[in-house]
Design goal:
Length: 257
């Protein structure tokens, strides 16, 4: 099936590793040109670009902290200068990790602000500065990234993350209503546990085993499985999806402590 992505240009924020890298690879495999945005991992982003180019894809990397207005504006400008258009925005960037986990009463206000900025403000800014170019051409796709924590509430010590990810869902709904009439769709993925290199490296084997038992499919997900869903949402095949929340979790609709 031709997904209609051959002449499309996509920004993938946080495309230097993890899910973003898999999403960039999947979109590129269908012919889209890729702009990999990363805040700090410049070496990894350049490696992703070299790998994509070695497979015949068009790709560039841009160092941009997508929670900062000037960086987002430069990201969009560089995309237009390099590839002449912008069709697909994958808002994936976001930092997590045990070092950021804190119960609400112990949560420093700066960490609350960081989490909301890193996951929610960044998605808003990218939509604000990318969507006008999609509207001008009458076609666009926005794919945001929430989480199971955005669907059912953040688990203990992840209240700030859950709130940010629930906000990403609400943001997507508004984007779908505002931009849909102009030919631009907005949808949001809500992954469960996906085995990125970083996540697998941080889990002790008994914890991984326990997690897998909670998933009806009996395993955690693979980044490539998320990449395929994002590619579908970016394609012509998803022409009547707008404002959809797509769970990617093997059927694990809640978590247990
Ligand atoms: N893995 C999972 O199980 C899972 C489940 C549900 C949801 N998610 C969500 O999926 C997304 C990706 O997660 P992941 O597991 O792939 O994480 P990851 O491996 O830690 O990758 C995060 C990516 O985001 C980039 N990033 C972070 N802050 C940024 C900023 N301000 N500006 C630009 N880039 C930034 C990082 O680049 P730098 O190193 O350059 O900052 C990196 O490329 C996140 O939004 C996460 O919340 C993941």
């Amino acid at each position: 099936m031709d997904l209609g992505l051959k002449d499309r240009v996509a920004i993938v924020t946080g495309g230097s590793k993890g899910l973003g890298r898999a999403e960039a690879e999947a979109l590129a495999a269908e012919g889209a040109a890729i702009v990999v945005a990363t805040a700090k991992s410049v070496r990894e982003a350049d490696q992703v670009v070299r790998d994509l180019q070695s497979r015949g894809s068009r790709a560039v990397s841009v160092q941009a902290d997508v929670s900062q207005t000037a960086d987002v504006q430069r990201l969009v400008e560089t995309t237009l200068k390099t590839f002449g258009r912008l069709d697909i925005l994958v808002n994936n960037a976001g930092t997590t990790g045990p070092h950021l986990n804190k119960p609400l009463v112990d949560l420093p206000e700066e960490l609350w602000d960081f989490m909301l900025g890193n996951h929610l403000r960044s998605a808003f800014l990218c939509i604000k500065y990318a969507a006008p170019h999609m509207v001008k051409q009458g076609w666009g796709r926005i794919i945001n990234t929430s989480s199971i924590h955005g669907r059912v509430g953040g688990r203990p010590s992840l209240g700030h993350y859950g709130a940010a990810k629930a906000g990403v869902i609400a943001l997507t709904m508004t984007a779908a209503r505002e931009l849909g009439p102009k030919g631009v769709t907005a949808n949001v993925i809500a992954p469960g546990f996906i085995g990125t290199e970083a996540l697998r490296g941080s889990l002790a084997p008994p914890t991984l085993e326990k997690l897998q038992q909670q998933v009806p499919l009996g395993r955690i997900g693979e980044p490539a499985e998320v990449g395929r869903v994002v590619t579908f949402l970016a394609s012509e095949a998803a022409s009547f999806l707008n404002g959809a929340v797509v769970d990617i979790n093997g059927g694990r609709l809640e978590y247990f402590f």
